[in-house]
Amino acid sequence: MVIVSSACRALADQLEGTEEEHEKYRHMVVQYIANNREMFEPFIEDEVPFDEYCQSMEKDGRWAGHMELQAASLVTHNNICIHRHMSPRWYIRNFDNQAAQMIHLSYHDGEHYNSVRLKEDPCDGPARPIIIKQVRNKQKLQVLVQSQDLLKTLYMEEPSKWSWLVVVARMLKKLSRFCCKLMAMLTPQSSS
């Protein structure tokens, strides 16, 4: 994950490999919203006049929300996957998967977006594609659900004996083992 803490900076990192182009993407998104007023005006919060909202969003430091990410997807012709801690991924899919790249962002503290990259990505250009395999087998999905229940039980057993950090470390260790086992189950076996 690249720490940039802004949707436009994260977008620039994903598409160009540097957050320095964030102003270009901010301007593109705001212009798209301004040029498609009828699509976006009904969703502006706090009764702010549309033109005032657009002027305000041009300034660095203004936080983007769903509406701005929707515009970013449309103006860059990319789909967006948003990763959130302990939550399902959230997708903005405006284009056929074959016709568009998937931009990966993480969402933190109800206000910050960061660029998500593979651990192996050298960060020397646009983000490399991230492939997320879906669980298609109900039995494998049941194993996943059971492991989440196990983690919840582990936390609830004796939280007074462990500090919060120890609980998280143990949960992550068990989750890591589970993920390795799940990946082994999901990986097709080649017949020799």
List keywords for this structure.
192 residues; alpha+beta; Cathepsin B, Chain A; 2 domains; 7 helices; 4 strands; 10% strand; disordered N terminus; Peptidase_C85-like; OTU_dom; Papain-like_cys_pep_sf; cysteine-type deubiquitinase activity; OTU domain-containing protein
* Count of discrete alpha- or pi-helical segments spanning 4 or more residues: 7
- Tally of structural domains: 2
CATH architecture of the largest domain: Alpha-Beta Complex
* Mean pLDDT over all positions: 76
General form: elongated
Structural class: alpha+beta
CATH fold name of the largest domain, please?
A: Cathepsin B, Chain A
Helix fraction bin: 40-55%
Low-confidence stretches: 1-5, 139-163
